[in-house]
Amino acid sequence: MLLKIVGSLIVFVSSTLLGYYHAQTYAQRPQELKTLQMLLQIFENEISFLSNVLQDAFQKVSSCTDSSVAVFFEAAVENLKEGMCADEAWTKAVKENISATSLNSEDEAIIISFGKMLGSSDLEGQIKNIRLTVNQLRIQEQKAEELRSKNEKMYKNLGVLFGLAIIILLF
Amino acid sequence: MITNDKQTYKIEEINEFERDILRFVSPDLRSAIKRMSVKDLVSTEEIRFRVNKPVMIQNHRGSFFLETSGELKAKPENPVFASQEQIIKTLELISENSIYAFQDEIRNGYITLRGGHRVGITGKAVLDGTGIKNLKDISGLNIRVSREIRGCSDQILKFIVQGENDIYNTLIISPPKCGKTTILRDIARSVSDGVPQIGLKGLKVGIVDERSEIAACFKGSPQKQVGVRTDVLDACPKQIGMSMLLRSMSPDVIITDEIGSSGDKEALMQVINAGVKIVTTAHGYSISQLKLRKEVLSMLEEKVFDRLVVLSCKNGPGTLEEVIDGSSMKFLYRREKLCC
Questions:
Q1: pTM for this one?
Q2: Does the ipTM exceed 0.95?
């Protein structure tokens, strides 16, 4: 009997955690999109007001936060140091690190397209590019927020209920 | 021992050359330049890349073609050619992938590298109304190596010092490539640090470094020796910079490069009326030729400068040709007379 109770407890806890974990990714994505927008704003300031070169600007941006999306900037700095051009460095940094975040492929496409014009035009062009990306990310954030409000609670409850269902079946 | 010292000095110089200049050259061209002998490498004054033309190296002996073997030849046999891709790649490396940060510099036709080396750019201009917006289809680059020669202004200093706490308002006149900026930098260093041998105490010096050539600031800190009492206003237009320094840093001496455009005179007068001394330079071969330029002529007529120093390249860059008292227009020194 004791063994059964312990076993069902384990089942219950793990299924609840699984539910919470899944809900977490929905909660993280809007947060990450928000942080990314903020970082791009900082980047805009770095290049427009301080007129820093790309590598320095990215370095500063990445040290602003320890959010998982700051890794893009950090990796891009490393790639730039190796002598890649701006577009290559950014694309590689995003592709290699996106799996560690909760962002989806739609977000990835937007973030990568930001790199296409990076560094290769005058300030006005750069700022337009940043604003465009920020706007697109904002729309993604709204969508992600909707998904979160719909799914976060559902997955949490689902985890708990699924655990309970297995236990009932087992008894 | 002495040869040993010379050797280490050269290695240092080569490392510096590599760090400050070669790092920004596209890999193929970089390896071609690296094949040059050490002696040629350290004496290089200019490196020129032109689209589909041989790479040229200028030093004090003249201009030469760079051979694939690394030799310098007056007539091309098997020279290294620069392609447009290589030139564009070089410009990309120079601007560190950040064209937006060098926009104003590209508009003026040059970028200054860390270390004060100036890279001139030619290409097709993109116009924006009346001004130039950008240069595209880059067709030529000219890397001018800037050298620091400590003590090169010693000969001139004794003519421009008056008393232990003062110097004369000085205009240095020189053709291009005769060491104007190098000498100006050394004057800044000497005046700022003080020269006990001629009884000059250190003065507060303000440098307006419009083209980042004198102090060669990198991220705000001077890469060249410009003295301990020196404040540098980097990349600031001369006229604005002079009055900014005047108000903010209370300098004894203001140093700036290449005057002669309209409006410079008012800015200079403002400095002089405030009792601050000025040391500056102008392009020219002689004083009579300089008088053809309206802006400079009116300054000479009003006797703004106490000392006029003329340089030439006759005995190598930085040859002191003559020193003239600006108010009486009498010669204080003449090279020709002394030697003949």
A1: 0.74
A2: no
